[in-house]
């Protein structure tokens, strides 16, 4: 069975950091472009960052310079390092493999 298990969310103060992880199984992880998306309260789904199977990355403007997406193909794991967090980064964060497979969300709350 295909599984994407996201973890690492939590409550953090503004300016703090979190690292999200997404453990994948049941498909050839290294062959897929991977993405992190988020859904803030009362808003739609937004793509935060993408990483291609060749390692190229892309970010939404609002997180450039603060977030870093990476992958470890040996561990079948996707990461999102989030630094300098803002209250507006509060959202449910999802990982997806080429928008074909989805994990459950992990909640990030940025608040003092």
What would you say about this model in short?
This protein is mainly beta and 112 residues long. The protein has no helices and eleven strands.
Describe the structure.
The strands form two sheets. Strands 2, 4, 5, 6, 9, 10 and 11 form a seven-stranded mixed sheet that branches. This protein has a four-stranded antiparallel sheet with strand order 1-3-8-7, with no helix packed on it. The relative contact order is 0.33. The N and C termini lie far apart (about 40 Å). The model has no long low-confidence stretch (mean pLDDT about 95). Helix content is about 0%, strand content about 50%. With about 110 residues, the chain is mostly beta strands. It has strands at about 5, 10, 20-25, 35-40, 45-50, 55-60, 65-70, 75-80, 90-95, 100, 105-110.
Q: Structural class, from helix and strand content?
A: mainly beta
Give the overall average pLDDT: 97
How many distinct beta strands?
A: 11
The H-and-E topology, N to C, reads as: EEEEEEEEEEE
Report the major sheet: 7 strands, mixed
Number of helices: 0
Helix content: under 10%
Distance between the termini: 40 Å
**Rough shape?**
globular
Give start-end ranges of low-pLDDT stretches.
none
Radius of gyration: 13 Å
Beta-strand share of residues:
over 45%
Give the arrangement of secondary structure elements.
Blueprint: E1 3-7, E2 10-12, E3 18-25, E4 34-39, E5 45-51, E6 57-59, E7 67-72, E8 77-82, E9 91-97, E10 101-102, E11 106-110
Parallel strand pairs: 2-11
Antiparallel strand pairs: 1-3, 3-8, 4-5, 4-9, 5-6, 7-8, 9-10, 9-11
């Amino acid at each position: 069975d295909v599984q994407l298990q996201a973890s690492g969310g939590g409550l953090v103060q503004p300016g703090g950091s979190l690292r999200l992880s997404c453990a994948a199984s049941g498909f050839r992880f290294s062959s897929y472009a991977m993405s992190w998306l988020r859904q803030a309260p009362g808003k739609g789904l937004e793509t935060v960052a993408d990483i291609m199977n060749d390692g190229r990355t892309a970010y939404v403007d609002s997180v450039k310079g603060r977030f870093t997406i990476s992958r470890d193909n040996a561990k079948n794991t996707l990461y999102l390092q989030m630094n300098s967090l803002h209250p507006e980064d509060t959202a449910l964060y999802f990982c997806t493999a080429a928008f074909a497979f989805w994990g459950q969300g992990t909640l990030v709350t940025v608040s003092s």
